[in-house]
Amino acid sequence: MASPFLDLSGDPILLEQVLGSGSSAVVVLRDGLAVKTLLRYFWSSDVQVDMNVEVIQREQDVYCRFQLSNPQCDGIVKCLGFSKEATQLTYMANGDLRTYLATNRPPQRLQLSWFHEMARALEYIHDQRVLVADIASRNFLLDSDMTVKFCDFSEASLLPLDVDMDTVDDNGYTTRIALGFPGAVNYEVVTGEKCEIDLFEDNLPTDGRATWPRREFLPSTEDVWLGSIIEDCWIDGGFRNARSLLRALDSVALHPPSPESLNEQPLLMKSSGFIQKLVDDR
To answer: Are residues 150 and 50 in the same domain?
Structure first.
């Protein structure tokens, strides 16, 4: 059965080949690879197609920045090559995180490993002077071993290599905002409830600057596992950067199960130095 999408030759893409689509690209499975190609419908205008080509190429520039780094980060879906209108990526067998969470409740040990992987990847991304503007559970993919990886840089900003990431402001986008989104993803993983963030909800129609929502518009983290870490992703005076977030996660340890509770979910505790580490790392 054909989908509404056209391939680079103008032929319909088979529906069973489509892995996903967004505002500017469609991802198809070809020869064991995930190929991200420009979004084109039967009714798309030449202007729309050209705009989508620009988005594809801007994302490829980000991947080129990553490829200059040695070693590359394991927390990012690997780019294997690209042409003007398409990017070849490693195929992630278990799909996107949001779809997985719709039917699965991962154990806390797996959740914690995901949060570490996200924080390490974000630290790497910022070290490469890339500012990601769209971090959501739908933009994380799960590999065959259930590791989680960033997959979408279509709205990312490629910044000068000498920029100070702790103070950069790209039309409102900052590392503080970038840290807020992983907090929302972590909240969704822990609670099973979506936490949508709209950076423009409170802005005037003519104001294109991104603004983090006021705290009262975000869900409560009281009695939520890792709630204090999620909270410090969201508030002013919280984590300064992804490195401080990662250090806080490193201070979280799983209790080994007691003989009486081998069949129960493991509980989590904070190490005795956890609070002091948060203070020192900000």
So the answer is: no
